[in-house]
């Protein structure tokens, strides 16, 4: 009551009624309001206590109640697996090399002349023997005609020196030689006919001897004529004949030289290939020895790559190598090692290795770059798993774990030691025997003893899942 009056006094100071009746009325209102606030506070406190009690009851019930059936079921994880295989594996080594055509030629002018005809040849395929350019050669044609005339003159002079300077005498000697030959032939024919008649008794021996005498006389006259011609030829000056013959030979050599120079005016492709460079064009002046075009046969190419001398020692001619051009990544091509240099570079201790491969599609460009990958330290019958199956303890370490799936589809963590490592496969040096089923996808942070569901089993040696 005292508190109520105090509150009324406080309210009266704030402008409340001051009469006794008004004070009684205000006191009743105040009591009702205080009663409502007490009931509300009691309800809030009771609600909190009930909620706390319910939570406590629920926790006690939860602790004492048995686990539900769906909570007792083991968690099943979907994974992809692959079989552990035994196969050959090798350490890949790579180096960037330069692409060279199997055969290439630089075509140059052999005479100095203006280019009369020459098309745009760059990137064009030319065949061996095909005409690729013609040089101006009218001056050479005129010089050859002049040399032919000189040659004819020297030949006539040689004939004059050799046969003599009196044509009539030469003609008479030739006639005498022909007459002597004809007389010998007639006498021999007459003698042979009379010999047959004599053997048959048709003529006397005297007639046969007469024919034999005529034949002997004709043969003697022939020998005399031949000796006369030889003596007249020897009477000429031998030096004059030698000089005449030398002048004829010199004239012939001059004609041959001009023929060769005329052939140089027509320029032909020495090999079949692609014109990679063109240095001069139609209408320009080509100097003797000046380059015109470069021709490269790129149907087969050689990639020359520098490998470390320690690696080159493990390679041999005939080894298979993979080649990937740097300008078209992903187009892997296969070649063979055809040469390993017998010397090394003293600066970087590298050895040049040649890899030869076909380039029928023309994907490799001459003087381009390509990555060469060869295999070393080849090991047969090795235990191999996809690279994705191994979780390494350290990126550069040789120990890790694999998840092996048993017949009950439960994954077990297995410690392994690795050996040879490639981008797609890893050799297991210890920890596996071969034939096991390992997880290749979904094995990251997979607890030991987890029940798994095999979503896909990769075929033996298939590393497509690992690549993904």
What does this structure look like?
- By secondary structure, the chain is α+β, with helices and mostly antiparallel strands.
- Among the domains are: 2-62, no CATH class; 141-261, Four Helix Bundle (Hemerythrin (Met), subunit A), CATH 1.20.120.
- It is 40% helix and 34% strand.
- It has 9 helices and 19 strands.
- It has helices spanning 2-13, 20-64, 69-72, 138-163, 167-199, 205-234, 238-264, 309-312, 464-467; strands at 76-83, 85-108, 113-117, 125-126, 131-135, 266-268, 273-278, 285-286, 291-308, 320-325, 333-345, 350-358, 369-386, 391-392, 399-405, 410-421, 425-430, 437-441, 450-458.
- Strand 14 and strand 15 form a beta hairpin.
- Helix 1 (2-13) crosses helix 2 (20-64) and helix 4 (138-163) runs antiparallel to helix 7.
